[in-house]
Structure formats: structure tokens, C-alpha cells
Amino acid sequence: MNIVTHNGPFHADDVLGCTLMALFCECSGEKHTFTRTRDQSIIQNADVVIDVGGIYDPANNRFDHHQNSFTEKRSNNVPYSSAGLIWKNYGFQIVRMFFGNDNIDFCNQICVDVDENIIQAIDALDSGYGNFYLADNVIHATFSGVISSFNPTWKEDITFDDAFFQAVNIARTLIMRELIRAEGKVCALQMANTAINDSHNGIVVVDKFIPIMENLIQNNMTFFIFPQEKDWLVQCVPLEGQAFSQRKPLPETWAGLRDADLAAVTGVQDAVFCHKGRFIAGARSKKGALDLAILALNG
After folding, report:
1. Does the pLDDT at position 48 exceed 90?
2. Domain ranges within the chain, ordered by starting residue
3. How many CB atoms lie within 10 A of CB 210?
4. Averaged pLDDT, 176-202
5. Rounded Cα gap, residues 193 and 184, in angstroms
6. DSSP 169-230
7. How many CB atoms lie within 10 A of CB 75?
8. Would you tell me how many other CB atoms lie within 10 Å of the CB of residue 128?
9. 236: three-class secondary structure by DSSP
10. Which of 33, 147, 191, 249 is deepest in the core (most CB within 10 A)?
């Protein structure tokens, strides 16, 4: 598959678009080459054209967004650039092949998460929306900015093409991590739903830590029990929008106690500690942590 994009200076949208298309080829076992040019005769004969050519026609693998006729936007009005167009048309297939999972809901969730977490920002910046500035003279280090920094300076003896391929290697590393991160998030959500369905009186127990606090908050859970190294922890679930609050704090009489002192107050013999902030406590066993949670719930 011959993938064509423009030559000269590059941006995150064409770099990531090419990277995604290359990943699609790799996942499907198809060989690919890159050509960087503005030669219309080469563009017309290419298998895939990204960010050049003046045509958006996904059925024929044309993914430009610079032409006046282009009006594609997301439902939140963030316009598409070439990276987003490739992801829109090939993201599902990339996810399906990358993870070897044909579940439609699984693939769709990852596609949405990756789009929201990184691709929309790239598209928006490339389309002239938003800016790099957090405050006066303070530049936000974006992925778009990182990729642009690979364009050669006037002092460097390196071609734009060579620099482009360096940027593609960086983009490949990022998108691989984004896929893995998103898959972890989607799987955590599935596990969260199971744990919440199995919960009793707002106490959620898992046998391996998973990042599900947001789901626990949304479902009005009270305590979260999970293992950490040799102990089992009881963490209070915060109130929505109040990270440093607790729906139900641990008892005041436990605050700051450790080991035998905490065991004497609670009757839980393997109790280890209770933070003075009363938002987390621990025991040596799963049963001990559950006993602490039940005591706190009823206290």
C-alpha cells in the first residue's frame, strides 16, 4: 500500500494520520510505503492520500481537509483534520486487529476514548481552534507541539523527510500506549460494573486494584476494598466533585491509630493503620479489611 502525504514541513495531523495508516497495514499483514510529495500525478495514483490532494473521499482513501468544500465535524463541533479522518474510518479496524477482539462495544469504546483523549486536540489545533498557551508566555507542551519540534531548524543538516520519519516513530510509540491505556480503562469499566453489581451496602471488593473510583462515585458507593502489596485497604469513596471529601469518613476514634492500638479500638486483630484524615485504613487480610468497612458503615 503506497501511502502519500505532502512533503516539506509537517504537523501532528499528517504524522499521526500516516502512523495510523501504517499500523492498520501492519495489523492486517499488508506491506506499506510512504511517499512525501505534492506532485499531483503521484497523488492521483496513490493507494492512500493523507493531508494533501484537496479531496475527502474515504471510499477511495482520500483524506484531505484543506479544501473549501470540507465541513466534517464531530457532534461537539470539533472539526476533523487528517489524523481524525483516518481514525474515524480505520480506528475500529485497527482496534479490532490490534487486540484480536471482535466485540463491537469493546472496539467502539476504545475508539471513542482514543479520539477524546488525544486525536480531537490534534485536529482542533490543526484546524485553528484553541491555542498552546496556559497563560502569558507559558506554552502548554502538547503532542502537536512535540511533533512540530521535529521539523529541522535552519542549522541542521537533515532533510524534512528524514525528520518526518523520526516523528512517525514517536507517534507510533504514543498511539501504541494510547491503545493500551484505553483498553485498560475499558476493561476496568467492565470490571467495575461487575464489582458494583456484586457489592453489598455500598462496599465494593476487588481482588486486584483497578482504577474505578470515578465509577464508584457515580454509583454512590461508600467503601472500596482492594489489595496493596501485603495488605488490604479500605478507601472511602469521595463525594462527586469533592476529591478531598468522603461519603462516609472512617470513625473519628480510629484516626491516626496503628497496629495494636487500632486493633484494640476496632476488635479487628489484623488491623494495620487508619490515616489521620480518616479516608483510608488497612488490615493484613481481606476479611480484616471487610470487617473494618462494615464497622465503619454501621458506626
Report:
1. yes
2. 2-189, 200-298
3. 19
4. 94
5. 14
6. HHHHHHHHHHHHHHHHHHHHHHHHHHHHHT-BTTEEE-SS----HHHHHHTT--EEEEEETT
7. 5
8. 8
9. strand
10. 147
% of the chain residues with pLDDT over 70: 99
Average pLDDT score over the chain? 94
Q: What is the pTM of this model?
A: 0.82
Helix (H, G, I), strand (E, B) or coil at 62: strand
In the chain, the amino acid numbered 39 is D
Q: Cell numbers for 40, please give them.
A: 499531483
The yes-or-no verdict on residue 55 having pLDDT over 80 is yes
CATH class of the domain comprising 200-298: alpha beta
Q: Is 92 left (phi over 0), alpha (psi -120 to 50) or beta?
A: alpha
CA angle 39, 45, 51 (to 5 degrees): 60
d(CA 181, CA 233): 24
**Tens of pLDDT along 120-143?**
999 999 998 877 677 777 777 889
The whole-number pLDDT of residue 230 equals 93
